[in-house]
Amino acid sequence: MSRATRVAIPLIATAALSAVGPVASASASAVAPVTPASASHAEPCPPRIVADWARAWNGTDPRALGALFTARGVYTDLGVGLTFHGREEISGWKARADRLIDGVHVTVRATHREGARITVETVYAGHLKGAPEAFAVPMTTLLDLDGHGRIVSDQDHYSLAEVLAQSGLPADWTPPTTS
Q1: Residue among 35, 17, 1, 4 at smallest CA distance from 119
Q2: CA–CA gap between residue 121 and residue 124 (Å, rounded)
Q3: pLDDT tens across 53-112, in order?
């Protein structure tokens, strides 16, 4: 990865998070149309891997998410500071999310592609079990692909503080250990 790309990644993620704006409610649609306000490199239709990724997050089979990755793929949830390696661990993380968050889903707002990297702007939404309110927050995902279109690396950027605030939970809330 070039130095320019390494410098640009945090800037893209920050810009994408601030560009999504407030979310009134969680949409049932997995892929929303790209608006004219999207960056000039926005793709009018998300790449197939992005549609598959959103469908896997919005579905009920955790293995569907893991299957999109290479055997040594890495998934990093920067909101909670956890990293998972390989299809089995990644599938396990999706299963835990399904147990902890009712109706967990993503709505794709825009995609941007440069080579083997796709930046996906989404709304990440659901209802943490036991929380008084649902949440819907902007999230930016960076997907790095191999030569066959499989995910090598997934980095999800969102604000856990905003998830907890919208959910009506204290900032120091932690999920139950037996979920």
Answers
A1: 17
A2: 10
A3: 999 999 999 999 999 999 999 999 999 999 999 999 999 999 999 999 999 999 999 999
Among 1, 31, 11, 34, smallest CA distance to 112 is for 34
On the CB side of 165, CA atoms within 13 Å amount to 6
Which class is 3-167 in CATH?
alpha beta
3-state secondary structure the chain: CCHHHHHHHHHHHHHHHHHHCCCCCCCCCCECCCCCCCCCCECCCCCHHHHHHHHHHHCCCHHHHHCCEEEEEEEEECCCCEEEEHHHHHHHHHHHHHHHEEEEEEEEEEEEEECCEEEEEEEEEEEECCCCCCEEEEEEEEEEECCCCCEEEEEEECCHHHHHHHHCCCCCCCCCCCC
Sequence ranges of the domains in the chain: 3-167
- List, in sequence order, every residue forming a beta bridge with 102; answer none if it has no partner: 127
Closest CA to 124 of 110, 113, 108: 108
User: Which pLDDT tens digit goes with each residue over 132-175?
Assistant: 999 999 999 999 999 999 999 999 999 999 999 999 999 999 88
Q: Contact, 34 vs 43, CB < 8 A?
A: yes
- What is the pTM (predicted TM-score) of this model? 0.75
Rounded distance, CA 41 to CA 39, Å? Answer: 5
